[in-house]
Design brief:
384 residues; alpha/beta; TIM Barrel; Immunoglobulin-like; 2 domains; eight-stranded parallel β-sheet; six-stranded antiparallel β-sheet; 18 strands; globular; binds alpha-D-galactopyranose
Length: 384
Amino acid sequence: MRFPVPLSLAAIALAVTVSFPTLAKSQVAATPPMGWNSWNYFSEKVDDATVRETADAMVSTGMAAAGYVYINIDDTWEGARDDAGNIVPNTKFPDMKALADYVHSRGLKLGIYSSPGPRTCGGYEGSYGHEEQDAKTFAAWGIDYLKYDWCSAGRIYTNADLPAAYQRMGQALAHCGRPIVYSLCEYGMGDVWNWGPKVGANLWRTTGDIQDNWKSMSEIGFKQSRLAPYAGPGHWNDPDMLEVGNGGMTATEYRTHFSLWCMLAAPLMAGNDLRAMPAETRAILTNREAIAVNQDPAGRQGARVSSRDGIEIWTKPLQDGGQAVAIFNRTEVEKTVALKWAEIGRTSRPGTLRDLWEHRDLEPAAEGASGKIPAHGVWMLRLK
Ligand code: GLA
């Protein structure tokens, strides 16, 4: 879809300064944000009732108790602007403030979506030229999280303007009177990890859109290792939302997806229908031992330490001085893997060794550990 922009507007936009002060350190997203987002499953079919039911399900399924907090409305909620230029939701969302109150009453937080361009990716109203006004509106509604999606902004700005364009909303959010998690969605353009924190971002997309299949998920996930140095408390790499439970992968593959996102200290945004979640999906999304790795307060992103014959070993340093280790089998056949302690930087056997999917302690042998890993599967461990 193309979004024609009057030349005069483009000229004003280009005049925006690209030098910016670093925004104050965020009070939000000290650990990777956890929640749910409507897009991967519901796409444009999200409405007020769905969001309320999802909030209820977040609590009744045990997801909230496992740490999930944000209920995020993605694209297609937007209506036109009123005479004063205020953004108004469309008929699917009759009263955004009442919806936020409801979500808050469940002990959860509400997120919303917009674009630095005049139109969102779905062709709905964006925030271009209304950044301050929209940030105030979101705060008045009680919004706690904003995903800000580049979309039509490319019609106005060049890629060199990415930081300045995102800074405008970052500044507006910083002054809106409410802590709002700021999530940049720019598909990894512009080496965003270099400037994201400076424009107030708490997370930024590092890739194009994920799809619910092994190829898409694994290509995205296993490409993230080099970005590890850029993540930390308050500012996270975002390899896109979870597809766990959406039907395009096996349970083994979804365990790999979830384990990898945990190792990456990635935001954990469930993208399935929480209202109709099979026990197997729920067990994956609420694996507290895996979540503890993701939410570790040290906020270190894991990285690959070795890769051979389709077997990848990743490690993630943890606050308690221990480490999480995930051994991934990217091949099409079951493999027996022998892990040597030296391969993960240890000079001797760990004191404790825990299997994070079997939920049991293992006896660490002198040289290392060995186990069978199914095709596309993972063996996820915690060592101390
Ligand atoms: C882009 C984003 C997606 C989703 C859609 C909505 O493709 O990357 O995550 O927000 O827009 O239109």
